[in-house]
Amino acid sequence: ALVRVHGTKKALAISTDVTPRYCLAQPVEGGKQAVAEAYRNISATGATPLAITNCLNFGNPERPEIMGQFVECLEGMGAACEALDFPVVSGNVSLYNETNGQGINPTPAIGGVGLIEDFEKAVGNAFIQADKYIFVLGKTEGHLGSSLYQRFILQDDAIYAPPSVDLELERKHGEFVRDLINAGIVDVVHDVSDGGLLVALAEMCLPHNVGCHIEDDNTAGFWFGEDQGRYVMVGADADKILAQANASGLTLSYLGKTGGTELTIAERVHISVKELHDIHENWLPDYMKTV
């Protein structure tokens, strides 16, 4: 969310993030990822991340495994805060969260805040015009461990290692994204998180009913892997975006262009934005009917 500061051109960018399944599988990486995702979401608006607060939700700390989760999540959070210059300024702890002796998944919820000096330079996270070029910043390795694809498509509830978080690369990517936004080179940015790249693209189609055409098909891991540190970026000058990435030594891949009323991938996938809306709006009511 962006909130204007009254009487100025400044605005605050605010994000809350955590992925409990990562924290359950590997608490150190889960703690890092919670902070890093807040950093990405703030950077994606053009704002400079300033600080975080937290709400540390865990089970019974008298059980050694729960205390272990708590300590290791804090270790990961601390490493991320230090590497990203994203300090903790407040927080609270909620313990003994369990039902019938079963503790909740470790959930160190992060609330991040950032500052943008001129709110008119802020960018959104949805496609707004046709014939813009779409890129993904960051390497896509197709990591499906602890992903939504693993749980809901493969219907596999086993615990696998989540994607690792490269904090130095997170910092570089965030700085690069903010620089391009401030220079007016990109006008739409969306981080890649739950569900992977294809879910991010689908979300970008919804607010303004603008579709996209992705030129090349790929593997399930490419589309649904949850590799960290990635952003989808959109702009009018493809050569300038690529040149900036090359000069910075960062991995940037061309995906396709915006436009139309469908999300298409090569010649294999065609889904209308209307159908995406229906899926998005009906999922929760349909799910609640089953529980």
Summarize the helices and strands and which ones pair or pack:
Layout: E1 2-4, E2 11-17, H1 20-25, H2 27-43, E3 48-57, H3 64-84, E4 92-94, E5 98-99, E6 102-103, E7 107-116, E8 133-137, H4 148-153, H5 167-182, E9 188-191, H6 197-205, E10 212-214, H7 220-224, E11 231-235, H8 238-248, E12 252-258, E13 262-265, E14 269-272, H9 273-288
Parallel strand pairs: 3-4, 10-13
Antiparallel strand pairs: 1-2, 2-7, 3-7, 5-6, 8-11, 8-12, 9-11, 10-12, 13-14
Helix pairs in contact: 2-3, 2-5, 3-5
Descriptors for this entry?
alpha+beta; 9 helices; 291 residues; 7-stranded mixed sheet; 60s Ribosomal Protein L30, Chain: A; Phosphoribosyl-aminoimidazole Synthetase, Chain A, domain 2
Explain this structure to me?
- This protein has 291 residues and is α+β, with helices and mostly antiparallel strands.
- It folds into 2 domains: 120 residues, 60s Ribosomal Protein L30, Chain: A (2-Layer Sandwich); 156 residues, PurM-like C-terminal domain (Phosphoribosyl-aminoimidazole Synthetase, Chain A, domain 2, Alpha-Beta Complex), CATH 3.90.650.
- The protein contains 9 helices and 14 strands.
- A 7-stranded mixed sheet has the order 9-11-8-12-10-13-14, sandwiched between helices. It has a 5-stranded mixed sheet with strand order 1-2-7-3-4.
- The longest helix is centred in the first third of the chain and has 21 residues.
- It is globular, with a radius of gyration of 19 Å.
- The model has no long low-confidence stretch (mean pLDDT 98).
Quick structural gist:
The protein is built from 9 helices and 14 strands.
